[in-house]
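FAQ: What does a ligand-bound record look like?

Like this one, built around manganese (II) ion:
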Amino acid sequence: MRLSEEQLQAFDEEGYVFLPEVFSPEEVTLLRGEATKIYAMERDEVWRESTGVARTAFAAHTYNEAYRRLGAHPRLVEPVTQLLDGPVYMHQFKINAKAAFDGDVWQWHQDYGTWARDDAMPEPRAMNIALFLDDVSAVNGPLMFIPKSHKAGKLEAGHDLNTTSYPLWTLDRATVTRLAEEGGVVAPTGPAGSVLMFHCNLVHASPSNISPWDRRIVYLSLCHVDNHIRQFKRAEWIAHRDFTPIEPLSDDCLKDLIRPEAAE
Ligand code: SIN
Ligand code: MN
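The answer part, i.e. the structure of the complex:
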């Protein structure tokens, strides 16, 4: 899958591109079912909210077959290869839960802020491509972006070890206010199966989910192979050390995992 000139331009100007309904309902049903099994596992990679529900599952592409294939899916890997202009490896892989009623916030941050400070990633030549496993709406804790904020470069940040169960380099309120006065705040929403790709310096956050609907999103954080991390402070399953270029699988690579009744 290749991005059009218009999409490339939108990414450059706004810092993100939304692609509706890239994956079929059958593919998404398969991945939702596997996510449920993963969240039920007692593993170091599955982090929980204070209430005990899953917050995120790291590195599922290393211990689940459907997610192994998703981690090399051409509909996700190829547009990023195009934007980063070369082969990519998996820096991080996570299935964020944002569970109904209990899903907690992600504070305002830039992903590159954490990748640079914690992992010594040399340049912002990495990015997220995200797949909605559920319908994402205004009410179930959507991802919020400050358009154009990627042009501000890597901003000053503080290490937040307390607000949520996941340590993050977060931005102060004055910075968020200044950037939002310029770019506004948007929350791209859409049906399950949609894909959202965003620049690693784009400022983003998400509110808590007090709706009765889950909001699960899978994030592939892909990095140009030349730009691999230099510091190995975090767990291997949070910041990967296998810099092998991803070889995209075939477009129908999930097909034989789909149960016949789900495909009807
Ligand atoms: C993130 O910023 O990495 C995750 C935010 C979310 O899933 O809401
Ligand atoms: Mn993030």
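Follow-up question: can I read anything off the structure? Yes, for example: The chain has a mean pLDDT of 95.
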